[in-house]
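ok trying again, last paste got cut off:
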Amino acid sequence: MDGKRVAVVGGGAIGGFLSARLAEAGHAVTVCVRHHPGSLVLESGGVECAVPVTFAASPGETVPADWVIVTVKAHHDPSAWLDKLVADRTRVVVVQNGIAHAGQGQGFVPALAYISVERLSPGHLMHRMGNRLVVAAGDAARDLDALFAGTVEVHAEEDFLTAAWRKLLTNVAANPITALTQRRMDVLASPGVRDVFRTLVTEAVGVAIADGARLSEQDVEATMDFYARFSGEDGTSMLGDRLAGRPLEYEAITGAVVERAHRYGVPAPINETLLALLRAL
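nice, full thing came through this time. structure:
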C-alpha cells in the first residue's frame, strides 16, 4: 500500500504506539493532541527510537486524512477533530476500551488494543508487551491490516460484541484496583486481592452473557491466566491516569458492567462497590 495521510487522534500510550507503527509502515502521520510534546520517542525491545511524526495541537492545524485512528479515552469527545479530518473517503477506526463502540459500527470501524505500553512522560513511551488490534470484520479490517503492513497484528473478528466483552474482562479488575490502591500489578500478591480480581471478572462474565456475548467460566480462567503474565512492575492505564491527575475511564469499564447488570437484573455487587469508590475519587 502506498504511503497514506494518517491522523491519530490522541497522543497517549496507545495513540503514540500506533503512530510509531504507522510511521514505520511508511505513512505520513499526524498526531492530534491537546498539548504539543515536542517529540515522540518509543522504547521497545530494549531499543529507543525517535518517531518521525507531525503534531497538531488544534483541529485548525489539520487537513482531511485518508485514515483517522481515534485513540482518546471513552470520556473524551473527538468530534472537533473529526469535523476537520474526515472527508468523503476517510476511513475512521475507533480504538477504545469498553463495549459502547461494539454496536455502533455505522460510519467507523471499532477496534480493541491488546498492547501494553506506558507513557513515561509526554512524548516518551515504553512498550512492554502485546502488538495486536482486534477489529470488526469487513473490508475496512482488511484494508487496516494492509495499512499497518505487518507492523501491528490486525485480527478481524466476526463477533465483535463477544470480543469487546472479552477485552473488558482484562480491564474490569486490574484497572480499578490499581487505580484505587495506587499500586502496580504487584497488588495481586496482597492477601485476598486475587480473590477480588476473580470475583470482579466472574460478575462481568455473568453480565456479558446476559448482554448476548458468548462467554463462559473458561473466560474467567483465561483472564486470570492473562493477569498472571504481567510482572509486578507493570501498571494499567487507569493507574497512570490517576497518578498523573487525569480523569479516569471507569464509566466505560466498571460503569458499563454495572449499568448492564441493572438492566438485566444480574447481580454484580463487587463491581458496584468499586464503581462507588471510583466515583468518590
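cool. The mean pLDDT is 93. The longest helix spans residues 193-210.
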